[in-house]
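Sample A.
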Amino acid sequence: MTAHIEHLEGTAFQKSRAFSPAVITHGGKTVWLAGQTATVDENGKDISGDFEGQARTIFTLIDKTLHRAGGSLANLVTMTVFINDPRHGDGFVKIRNEFFKDGKYPASALLTIAHFARPGMLLEIQGVAVI
């Protein structure tokens, strides 16, 4: 059974922050994504300490994982984003908006935490997709 995904219309604030207040799904299969981090980009370049590079690489890696499961980022219905510095929040929202150009954003939480598992990591994204 193919998934049907409905994104509830967000407020102006929610749209400006690139997230949906809720996403409703019917059918399909649920894909629980492990937390994704990156300190090296797809070309092997060290991106430790590079927030934008890590964010873009993480979204690309999540998309590749979802393709392996039969979907894409468009199937991501919720995400939990962990950052280590609240000053990165606005930059993250801008980058997320680049990956969801159609305005159909996943539901999301954005949390600031003190530490990650390895030095150089600045963010981690965990999510759930329905395909």
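Sample B.
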Amino acid sequence: MSLKSSIRTAVTLGKGVFVGLTEATEDRDPIELFGEWYEAAQESGIFMPDAMALATADANGAPSVRMVLLKRFDERGFAFYTNYGSRKAADLDANPRAALCIHWGVLERQVRVEGSVTRLSEDESSAYFATRPRGSRIGAWASDQSRPLRSRGELEDRVRDAEARFPGDEVPLPPFWGGYRLRPERIEFWQGRADRLHDRLVFRREGDGWRTERLYP
């Protein structure tokens, strides 16, 4: 982290730890509040502020968690992308509910999101896929995600096959790859405070609005 980034991080950390989540925050729209925190995390210079843990469960309720990247968020929810043959996709097909946890440790901030999950449209997935570097698009075609792999060489052979199939920059969206959107029903903001007397503020969806509640740390 550069000196400039370190200074920005210290400033953001100081505001959060000393000011905390004031009572005025309880009347906020949680998506707008998340946007402000996400922007602060980006501006702080911390590594991969878009990294988040995605927790799913299969048809039997067995949980599974992994790190994914947040690619978009708005009033409709939080979007991420994957191979539709992956374990996470199989879980979501069987049990279309999930939870996200985004933790910015340096800033002592955490956001937890829970809700239902639906697939994005092919148009939305295609639009995002086109923004990925060519190597990442080729990799999406080459990877049979979550399936057994005999050797690294087999994967490299599949990459070469995909490169030969799509020699130019036009690499289309694979039919087995795309996005999901988690529609939040519960969003919790956690702000670290001195003496571990942290602030926790929960927003629960009620109709077209949100109900707010504070929790003990």
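B remarks: The mean pLDDT is 92. The CA atoms of residues 56 and 62 lie 8 Å apart.
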